DNA sequence: AAATCTCCCTGTAGGC
DNA sequence: TGCCTACAGGGAGATT
């Protein structure tokens, strides 16, 4: 599934094909995604030139002089550059046909993603306005996370997965980072010390940085055509390993559910 | 304000 | 083999 590293790698992969290029036509085959595809994308994008691309959290951004296309990949979405010889398949919901013939193709089986138009500045769009810091920038640090957590009674896992606190930490990363930091996912956010938040921030940065490195590799295969598997899975320490031995202490990993989401942890290594 | 719940959707895995 | 059900998950929006 597209995590922040894959969104960033997608952006880098499509950027050179789009920048300075003009949209000739949009073809929307399925307009019911998470929200209906914006009318401005369906009928008002042709003729506009894409000046640059960007990313905020897991939102991919395509800028023109008049506004910005906001793309979210949900959990099954992808974008790739194709040419007109490649026929649209099932779940290829949208094509952005560029004036040089390149096509940005949006694919999303589960339709949890979106294609929206926003006025500038896009940071003021309701979807982006209240997002927390990027996990790899300096404003995401131990002090920040500690301060934000004071008085919070949610489990720390829910806390770090809240995009208003920090963006890009999905279920997989949250599980992995908490294991690396030796913190149980159900520990209340408000109860953890500044020291432990400092360690947690380091672990979140590390797991996401690593996934970016590996995610890039995945994406190259992905964009290249055959889609699959993703080397990041090979690095998983706890996620998807419930019932298996902890790689540190060999104790059996336990699975619990927190707000309809699975958490896996080691009762020996995490407290 | 903060916490909790619901829902959007389809491919896949597991049970029979 | 094939059918059926449960489940996975990002995250906004509604509800408590």
Helix content range: 25-40%
Mind telling me the C-alpha Rg?
20 Å
Largest sheet: 4 strands, antiparallel
| Integer average pLDDT | 89
Terminal residue distance = 29 Å
In total, the number of strands is: 10
**Uncertain regions: pLDDT < 50 for 5+ in a row?**
217-229
Structural class: alpha+beta
What portion of residues belong to β-strands? 15-25%
Write down the secondary-structure element order: HEHEEEEEEEHHHHEE
| Count of individual helical segments | 6
Give the strand order, joined by hyphens, for the main sheet.
1-6-7-5
Q: What sort of overall outline do the alpha carbons produce when their principal axes are compared?
A: elongated
Describe this structure in words.
This protein is of the alpha+beta class. 29% of the residues lie in helices and 21% in strands. A 4-stranded antiparallel beta sheet has the order 1-6-7-5. Strands 2-3-4-8 form a 4-stranded antiparallel beta sheet. The longest helix is centred in the last third of the chain and has 33 residues, at 194-226. Residues 217-229 have low confidence and may be disordered.
């Amino acid at each position: 599934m597209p995590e922040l590293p894959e969104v960033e790698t997608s952006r880098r992969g499509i950027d050179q094909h789009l920048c300075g290029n003009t949209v000739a036509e949009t073809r929307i085959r399925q307009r019911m995604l998470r929200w209906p595809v914006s009318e401005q994308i369906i009928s008002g994008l042709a003729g506009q030139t894409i000046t640059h691309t960007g990313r905020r959290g897991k939102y991919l951004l395509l800028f023109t002089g008049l506004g910005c296309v906001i793309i979210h990949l949900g959990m099954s979405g992808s974008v790739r550059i194709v040419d007109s010889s490649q026929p649209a398949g099932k779940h290829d919901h949208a094509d952005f046909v560029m004036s040089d013939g390149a096509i940005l193709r949006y694919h999303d089986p589960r339709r949890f993603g979106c294609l929206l138009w926003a006025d500038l500045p896009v940071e003021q769009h309701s979807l982006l306005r209240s997002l927390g810091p990027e996990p790899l920038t300096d404003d995401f640090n131990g002090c920040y996370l500690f301060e934000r957590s004071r008085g919070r009674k949610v489990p720390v896992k829910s806390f770090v997965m809240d995009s208003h606190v920090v963006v890009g930490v999905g279920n997989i990363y949250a599980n992995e980072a908490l294991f690396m930091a030796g913190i149980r996912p159900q520990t209340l956010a408000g109860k953890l010390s500044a020291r432990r938040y400092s360690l947690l921030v380091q672990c979140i940065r590390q797991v996401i940085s690593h996934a970016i490195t590996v995610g890039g590799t995945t994406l190259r295969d992905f964009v290249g055509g055959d889609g699959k598997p993703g080397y990041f899975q090979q690095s998983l320490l706890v996620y998807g390993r419930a019932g298996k031995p902890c790689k540190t202490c060999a104790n059996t990993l336990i699975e619990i559910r927190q707000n309809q989401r699975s958490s896996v942890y080691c009762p020996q290594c995490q407290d």
